[in-house]
């Protein structure tokens, strides 16, 4: 005979509420119970009755089997596995104590599991970094995701085609909000504090897409398009991700978000129309912003994707960094040699535009191998959606091959063969220009000479071989 035990779902209930973006008061209203009872359920101080289980399943359209799973047993199993780690070998950890912690203190269990997970990932990343050597993306989800995007030159044909079809459907309906309305989804704009400081949240129970009302028009439209991508194009995005096996779930999660953003941009700026406008306006980003109701950064992103077979346009490399030089985004739509390391040379104007916020800086660049490029850089601001709200100033840059610069309004009539170029390196460790006064560290493979009797203007002097 099966043992009848009380069912405690505290952590799972709390997780569900947060995923739905609900306060305890809102959940209590949905379930027709008191907020204090919700709090007791979440703290495992009250078991979940059969009636309450049915209410949860019916109200939030959930599967009872998934909802009623035993978190305590799952935590016990996971904690037991973690505590087998040799680092705990000299500690007496009776199975009953482990089970007691898992059943009675699910919050503490989750904290321990997260700590051990972080420790394990760091250990693995360090080991793989030493084994693989510099430049390997092994163990780094961000670099692995960047490598996947770069391998496709930041163009995904199936996604772009489907997004173009969706854009046509949306135009026929009179806009994204009306298109969603026809699907039974209402779009509402609410203050950030009501949304618990999120920019976008989908209320599945009430079929409402909630958007922060402090966003500008371009950001609002992009968030709506992102929701459409996550729902109407989910199958196509998942299929694209199945083409390759990734080393971690984190990589897949990052790429899911990146590809949803890609699809949102493709919906807002359909390929054929955008590519035609880009050529007609000579890649004038501000003009394209006005035509498509998009931001400078959104248009810059989209310009990196114009690689449709037979309809290719100028190939761009995109980078975004902060004032400390930390690279937060890198998109390679042209296979440039500095895609893996770009952003490290202080001679590139992308590091200097912080002195003149909002102004576009152009620059002709030459890498140590002789490759030449044309760069457009400007600052963009994120956050700060209201007085006193923190904001961050970043720099973004687009670079194209020098021979294609004549198609850009920014290059004017300058002949790229005679344009004054700035010599830059992909990173100091890989740049062997000995005359660079901006060098931070010596390059790999060069011996530094002693300077007892000679001090040059450059930070280091190198042996000839």
Unreliable stretches covering 5 or more consecutive residues: none
Order of SSEs, N→C?
Answer: HHHHHHHHHHHEEEHHHHHHEEEEEE
CATH class of the largest domain: Mainly Alpha
Please give the number of β-strands. 9
- Fraction of residues in β-strands: 5-15%
Q: In total, how many domains does the architecture comprise?
A: 4
Major sheet summary line: 6 strands, mixed
How far is the first residue's CA from the last residue's CA?
A: 82 Å
Organism: Novosphingobium malaysiense
InterPro entries: Cro/C1-type_HTH, HTH_RamB, IrrE_HExxH, Lambda_DNA-bd_dom_sf, ScfR_C, TransReg_Diox_bact_type
Keywords: DNA-binding, Transcription, Transcription regulation
Domain HTH cro/C1-type: 13-67
Q: What would you say this structure looks like, in words?
A:
By secondary structure, the chain is an alpha+beta fold. The chain has four domains: 10-107, lambda repressor-like DNA-binding domains (434 Repressor (Amino-terminal Domain), Orthogonal Bundle), CATH 1.10.260.40; 137-268, Arc Repressor Mutant, subunit A; 294-425, Beta-Lactamase, CATH 3.30.450; 432-465, no CATH class. Helices cover 42% and strands 12% of the residues. The chain has helices at 10-19, 24-31, 35-42, 50-60, 64-67, 71-82, 95-104, 106-132, 141-151, 157-173, 176-182, 217-232, 234-241, 249-268, 271-280, 285-292, 296-303; strands at residues 186-190, 200-203, 208-212, 317-322, 327-332, 361-366, 372-383, 391-401, 421-423. The strands form two sheets. Strands 5-4-8-7-6-9 form a six-stranded mixed beta sheet. The chain has a three-stranded mixed beta sheet with strand order 1-3-2, covered by helices on one side. A hairpin with a 4-residue loop joins strand 4 (317-322) and strand 5. Helix 6 crosses helix 7 (95-104), helix 10 (157-173) packs across helix 14 (249-268) and helix 12 (217-232) packs across helix 14. The longest helix is centred in the N-terminal third of the chain and has 27 residues, at 106-132. It starts with 9 loop residues before the first helix and ends in a 42-residue tail after the last strand. InterPro entries: Cro/C1-type_HTH (IPR001387), HTH_RamB (IPR026281), IrrE_HExxH (IPR010359), Lambda_DNA-bd_dom_sf (IPR010982), ScfR_C (IPR018653), TransReg_Diox_bact_type (IPR050807). One of its GO terms (cellular component) is cytosol. GO terms for molecular function: DNA binding; DNA-binding transcription factor activity.
């Amino acid at each position: 005979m099966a043992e009848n035990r009380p069912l405690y779902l505290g952590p799972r209930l709390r997780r569900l509420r947060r995923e739905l973006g609900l306060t305890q008061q809102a959940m209590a209203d949905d379930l027709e119970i008191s907020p204090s009872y919700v709090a007791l359920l979440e703290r495992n101080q009250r078991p979940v009755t059969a009636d309450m289980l049915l209410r949860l399943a019916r109200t939030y359209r959930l599967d009872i089997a998934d909802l009623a799973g035993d978190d305590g047993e799952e935590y016990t199993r996971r904690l037991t596995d973690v505590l087998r780690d040799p680092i705990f070998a000299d500690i007496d950890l009776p199975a009953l104590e482990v089970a007691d912690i898992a059943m009675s203190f699910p919050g503490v269990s989750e904290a321990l599991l997260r700590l051990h997970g972080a420790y394990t990932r760091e250990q693995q990343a360090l080991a793989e970094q030493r084994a693989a050597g510099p430049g390997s993306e092994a163990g780094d989800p961000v670099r692995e995701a960047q490598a996947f995007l770069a391998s496709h030159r930041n163009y995904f044909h199936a996604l772009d085609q489907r997004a173009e079809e969706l854009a046509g459907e949306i135009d026929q309906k009179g806009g994204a909000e009306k298109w969603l309305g026809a699907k039974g989804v209402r779009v509402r704009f609410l203050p950030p504090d009501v949304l618990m400081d999120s920019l976008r949240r989908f209320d599945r129970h009430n079929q409402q897409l909630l958007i922060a009302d402090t966003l500008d028009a371009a950001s609002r439209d992009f968030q709506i398009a992102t929701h459409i991508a996550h729902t109407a194009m989910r199958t196509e995005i998942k299929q694209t991700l199945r083409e390759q096996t990734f080393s971690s779930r984190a990589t897949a999660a990052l790429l899911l978000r990146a590809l949803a953003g890609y699809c949102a941009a493709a919906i807002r700026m359909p390929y054929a129309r955008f590519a035609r406008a880009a050529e007609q306006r000579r890649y004038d980003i501000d003009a394209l912003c006005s035509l498509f109701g998009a931001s400078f950064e959104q248009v810059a992103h989209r310009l990196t994707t114009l690689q449709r077979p037979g309809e290719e346009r100028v190939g761009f490399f995109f980078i975004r960094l902060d004032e400390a030089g930390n690279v937060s985004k890198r998109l390679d739509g042209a296979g440039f040699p500095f895609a893996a390391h770009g952003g490290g040379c202080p001679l590139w104007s992308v590091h200097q535009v912080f002195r003149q916020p909002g102004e576009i800086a152009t620059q002709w660049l030459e890498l140590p191998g002789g490759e030449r490029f044309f760069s457009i850089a400007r600052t963009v601001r994120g956050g700060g959606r209201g007085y006193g709200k923190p904001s961050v100033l970043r720099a973004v840059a687009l670079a194209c091959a020098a021979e294609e610069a004549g198609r850009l309004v920014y290059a004017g009539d300058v002949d790229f063969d005679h344009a004054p170029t700035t010599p830059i390196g992909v990173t100091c460790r890989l740049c062997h220009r000995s005359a660079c006064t901006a060098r931070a560290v010596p390059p790999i493979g060069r011996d530094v000479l002693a300077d007892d009797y000679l001090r040059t203007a450059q930070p280091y002097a190198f042996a000839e071989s």
